[in-house]
Structures are given as C-alpha cells and as structure tokens.
Amino acid sequence: MKDLLKTPATWLKTLALGSLVLLTACERPPMDTVQHGYRGTGMVQVYNPRTLEGVIEANVVPEAQPPASADGPKAGDVYQNVKVLGDLSVGEFTRLMVSMTAWVSPEKGCNYCHNAGNFADDSLYTKIVARKMVQMTQTINSKWQNHVGQAGVTCFTCHRGQPVPKFVWFTADSQPQGSNFIGDKAGQNTPAPSVKLTSLPYDPFTSYLLGNEPIRVAGTTALPAGNTSSIQRTEKTYALMTHMAGSLGVNCTFCHNTHSFGAWDGAPPQRATAYHGIRMTREVNNDFLVPLTDTFPTERKGELGDVAKLNCATCHQGAYKPLFGQSMLKDHPELATLRAAFAKAPAVVEPVATPAAAQ
Known about the structure:
Number of helices: 12
Low-confidence stretches: 342-348
Strand content: under 5%
Shape: globular
Distance between the termini: 61 Å
CATH architecture of the largest domain: Orthogonal Bundle
Helix content: 25-40%
CATH topology of the largest domain: Photosynthetic Reaction Center, subunit C, domain 2
Radius of gyration: 24 Å
CATH class of the largest domain: Mainly Alpha
C-alpha cells in the first residue's frame, strides 16, 4: 500500500477522492444573492438556481374551476348530513367538492372520503377528517391573517394533489437514558431531513409546535437570576430555526438582524410574521389534529401512536411564501371565513394581536 501511494498518479487520485468526499455537502456555484437588509450588515439571501427550479415546480397554482352562482337552493336543504358548508348554493358546494377532490385525491376521487352508495354516510374516517380540515382552513384564514395575510390557504396549500401532505411530522422516540448502550442521546445525533441532516435535535416540533416551551438561545438577564436558557434549549431552538429556514428556502437573516439575532429592534417584518406562524401552527395541531387521534386508523399514526401534524414545511415546501404568495383563496371565498353552518364557531373571530417585542 505504501508503495502504491508513492506514485504521483495515485496521489492525485487519492486527493481527488478526498476532495469529492469533503465537497459532497457543498453547493457548486454560481449562486444568486439578493440584498435583504442595510448595506454592510451581511443581510443577504443566497439562492441556488438549480435547486430553485424544483421549488418553483412544486409551487405552481392549479387552474381554478369556473365560478358557480350563489343563487338557487342551499346544499344543506338538498343534501343530507352537510354540517359545515350547508349555507352554500348547490352550485358553489359542488364546485368546492370537485376542487377538493383535485387538491387532495385526484386518483381515487370522491370515493376517498365518501361511501359511493351513500354520500351522506360518515363511516369513512377520511370524511370526518376532511370536514375538520375545512373548519381548520376557515379558522386559519379568518383568525390568523397576521401570518397568512390576504393570500390565505386552501386544501391545496398543504396537499398538492396528495391525500397525505408531503411534509408532516410525528413525535419521535428520543431514546432516553438507559434505553440502549449509547445512553441519553437527548433526541439528537441522528441526522434527519427535518433539521437539514445536522446533529441537532431532530424533533423540536413536539416542544415548540405542540408544546409551549420558550424558544430561546441566550438569557435576557445576568446570571444567576432569570437566565434559564440551557444548552439543550439552545440546541432545540437552533433545530427549529434550521427547520424554518430550510422550509422557506431562506437564510437566518430573512427574519433576524445580524446586529443582534435576539433583538426585535431593527429585525425585518418577517420575524413578526414567523412569530404568529409558530403560534398558528401550535394551535392548529392542538385544536384540530390532535383531537382526531381516535379517528385515524393505526396505520396512519406515528410509532408512538400520535397523528400526523403540521410544521412550516407542510405549507411552504421550500418557498418563502406558500405558492410564492399566489392566492387561491380569491377563487374560493367559501374557505375564507367560518360558515354559519358551523354552529360552535363564534360569529366573528378576532385576529391575534401583534406580540410585545419581549415575547
């Protein structure tokens, strides 16, 4: 072996192989940069034109169905067991059902949610889930405009033609101390796509998008009083931020000022939008998805028996705004507000207020 390495050709091959290994995780130039903040602050967004092509393809908006008249009998008067959208006209109701079929289950069609022999039947779990998801979509559009703005969301925002959205998450088994010879891994050191294949904790979602743990890197007061930001919390925070950046296809400076990442003063407006997005996702997971745990069959649940839940990637899918900000809601106003047929919903839903800077 030593004799082989003495030849120049072998050295060159070894060097080339080593360089290839080192550069595997790197992206080759040229790259595009966009000034995002004040000059001299280093607030520049970096984009790879080659990977961006796939993101653009994934965020193409489908053509809307022709509009339907609001005149005529109501769906709730004509059809049986219409609990959420009964105040729509038959034409509006049918148009939305056709659209939802294309958005969620284009291959199986209506039978994915409906009993073909009796559309009023609620025996299929997918119909129960779909009804809840319509209510969820209406709630997001009416309550969380501080995050989704006027563009809003529809079923297609998450599903993109698939019955199960491409990006969902389950609570991970973090292998606590004593579970194997490795010891306590603290839920990390297992590279996962959720955190861009880093060694950071691969499930920051249970703590922050289901639970309400403080998202902190450094304490805001001097030791010892009040500074409770541990190294583990810092690592989980970095994991969540890595997930958010990857999901939106942006750098950290999309939301943070390089002068002080923790300071709200001078931060881009996207930071407030992200603040609301975290809380919106947490509410959606707890109020709409977790209550469906007993509805979903075992094969649709995670290894710990929980249901699939949302994170930033579910809607954004690599785009700084879902569908690059193109609104489908303007063509589907029936999803913009909670409908009168949803009896438990308040008549008016107040939007969530902008937080104080300290939060």
